[in-house]
Amino acid sequence: MTATLPLLAQRDLLQPLAWRQGQPISAAQFIAEALAVAAQLPDGRPINLCQDRYLFALGLAAALLRGQTSLMPPNALPDTLRQVPAAGGTPYLLIDDTPPDTGALPLHRVVRPPAATPVMQVPQIPVEQEAVCLLTSGSTGAPQPHVKRWGPLVANITAEAARLAELLQRPTLAGITLVATVPAQHSYGFESTVLLALLGGASFDAGRPFYPADVADALARVPAPRALVTTPFHLKTLLLAGLPLPPVALTLSATAPLSPQLAAQAEAAFDGQLIEIYGCTEAGQVASRRTTAGQTWHTLGELRITQESGTDGDRFVVAGGHVTEATPLADVLVLQDAQHFQLLGRANDLIHVAGKRSSLAHLNFHLNRIEGVDDGAFWLPDEVAESVVRPVAFVVAPSLSSRDIIAALRDQLESAFLPRRVVHVDVLPREATGKLTVAALRRFALQTLSAAQAPVSALPASDMNGDLNGDTTFDIPTDHPSFAGHFPGHPVLPGVVLLSLLMQALAQRPALAARVGATPRIDNAKFLHAVGPGSTLRVALREQGSGVTFDIWQGNTAVARGQLSAGAG
Q: What is the pLDDT of residue 456?
């Protein structure tokens, strides 16, 4: 007889599993709608591109009920979609909105059935069923498959839910409502939002807010106790906005190590705990830590880590629990015992400069701790004419000079690792999760440094113009580098770029710039509407009291507004 496990963990089926547009959807209603969607699915293997998290969950559950494996490529770019392997069934796209380019794959739109009667019996899924296949880019660029069977997935999420409930001093996660800034298509967003609700007993909000004001509104819209599933990049942006935030019992962070200072700031702002999750594509979620309690990670459930020595040096291997085959980790650890460790960084992240060794993660950690650095990353050139390679730092720091940044780093880093150049940029090419890949950073660095060598003005005349009111207009190119990482398939201009345009417009108004000084403070910034490729924006600046108000318009729609006042220094 085939062993099975339920689609949903034990819970009250009449209580909310999800919240959509402020309305609760019970677990019993979700089951009924998933069964109805399953009956309409075509044959093949779905690539679930639904942006609405509830519709994503419906598509996932429907595929499970049909015995189909959901494919999860690293992004939704047409070239990536075209490379998805057809072995095991023809790929097709599950969508809730038509993407601009589907890679010629067939489409199936996920919609909620209009009259599905709640079902009080939870369907069973075979333990050995291939639930999802994560596709990651290998050395050849072709997607590499990592299959996750239903049984190990259940074990992984059950262990995560048990750890989080223990830290929150709750018997279960029942009643916790998850709000997430990370997409469901990313393994972290998939595990810690959709699956944490289905298999961990929580409920989730269907949206994916991005701008700080949208995150604050989404949190306020759902009932307490709340949990925010986010990344260091998104969390820092939210806290810097200075918006009023409701209590959040649990903040989850992953994709990059979080500084103790930012963790403490988050816990103070939310009046709740911040927990980091450590994991990888191959092994899933491996460990957690409360960052303000120390740097030690604690493995989940029955997972154990051992250190093995080989001809290529030591490596660290995880096994037990949901990891049915011993799996090497791509990180350098310091083991305290089989369940507790400290993380030093990626094994391929170590760099050597002038005979000294460090890691890019360590350098980035100190760079992003500097007050006034909104985002930053070190990059080590791989082809230089000099005898000694020196790192370059790319920063989003409108209020700081290169000298300010190097002075702040000098107290934290050995002189060999101080950046040879500090390059100010509008935005770094991060993915929607906030992750900055090695390939994307290298491509961005080469393009940025190459452009910097040419004698150009601050903006081409075709991109920036003044009008009779003194307002400044900007044409946003369709190939702006930030669009590659922010919501592939649904590109959105990040708020930090809007603020960069604001500062450029201010520089064109010397009298107004003099009112707020060289390092103005941005107060009460509100990001009201998303801005896409090809938009024309108008920045309006007006005197108010001793400061300046700003509005950024797209046609007759305000997309951002706030005030500028004189900053310190």
A: 30
